[in-house]
Amino acid sequence: MGKLDGKVANVTGGHGGSGRRRHWRCRRGSRRRDQLLVLGGAAEAVVADLEAKGVRAAAFQADQADAAQAAGLIRRVAERFGKLDILVDNAAVGGGGLLGGEPADQATIDRRLAVNYTSVVAAVQAAVPLLPDGGRIVSISSGVATRAGFQGMAYYTGTKSALEGFSRGAARDLAHRGITVNVVQPGFVDTEGNPADGPAASVFLPTAAMGRYGRPEEIAAGVVFLASPQASYVTGAVLRIDGGYAA
């Protein structure tokens, strides 16, 4: 407890699913009622929940498929709270398309690339001059970046692999300032969009060594660690929280 006292964190895609639970876990990382946590996305309900628990929070609307808006969000957060300590790139667009099958819609491919990679790069570029020495950047990838596992994942896998490659390079570039850049690689997580008792469970469950879905708070715990002072010597790393999917 207290790992994130007084920190300002911008978490994109924070209004639903595991993003919402990650905010809950970030709140648990602080004891102080003046803790600042900034949310990206349409997150008014999350903000109200956090404020009821004594956390100062704000919601910002930005289309993460638009690199200019993604970068602008970073600047708006810093202007609102006077600083930025942590950037968590959580927004993502999933889905796939089978190569050799029905032609994939180009607009869908472009949007997936924009949200999962291009706008993350723009957000990081905007954050770097605002982050203090010792700042934190954590991006949420996917287990498919290491192991596709299924047909129809090529387009999505490509975006997440690009994100991980960018993060390794950024870790080198920013190490002299003590800014760490890391990736969390979740497996299948029980959320509204992919419930553990949903129709896909029979396909997904056999691929995880632990034989169950992850819980959002299990993913969030890894994010909090990488965002904390205790992770000051961890950079350029991929933290797999996947129940053994990539084992």
Automatic annotation (TrEMBL):
CDD domains: SDR_c. Keywords: Oxidoreductase. It comes from the Bacteria. Residues 1-23 are annotated as: Disordered. Pfam families: adh_short_C2 (PF13561). Belongs to the short-chain dehydrogenases/reductases (SDR) family. This is SDR family oxidoreductase. It comes from Amycolatopsis dongchuanensis. The lineage of its organism: Bacteria, Bacillati, Actinomycetota, Actinomycetes, Pseudonocardiales.
